[in-house]
Amino acid sequence: MYLEIVTPDKKVFSGKVNSVQVPGSKGSFAVLEFHAPIISTLEKGRIKITEGSAETFFKISGGVIEVKDNNVIILAESVLM
User: Fold this and answer.
1) Lower CB count within 10 Å: N or C terminus of the chain?
2) Which long-range contacts (CB under 8 A, 24 or more apart) does 15-21 make?
């Protein structure tokens, strides 16, 4: 699936990933390929991206995630690396 992480200032990440785990408002959840469409708010916390055997982490201060047609967009308030 294709993931984009965007802040008001810039695009932080874009590329194909196997999975992404996010800090949802009602608890952490993961998105895998062919996930059902969803829009959810995100809390302050950590995003975990899995690309093959590699893992990448970003800390966000909150935001929104949209999953649709095997594309994931995370609109983050800010990203701390």
Assistant:
1) C
2) 15/51, 16/51, 17/49, 17/50, 17/51, 17/72, 18/50, 18/51, 18/52, 19/49, 19/50, 20/47, 20/48, 20/49, 20/50, 20/72, 20/74, 21/47, 21/48
* pTM score of the predicted model: 0.94
Type of residue numbered 11: K
Could you identify the residue written with the tokens 């965007």? 6
Question: What are the backbone angles phi and psi of residue 79, rounded to the nearest 5°?
Answer: -125, 130
- What's the pLDDT tens digit per position in 33-70? 999 999 999 999 999 999 999 999 999 999 999 999 99
Q: In angstroms, rounded to a whole number, what is the distance separating the alpha carbons of residues 63 and 19?
A: 18
Domains in the chain, ordered, with CATH? Answer: 2-80 (2.60.15.10)
Among residues 65, 63, 57, which one has the least CA distance to residue 76? 63
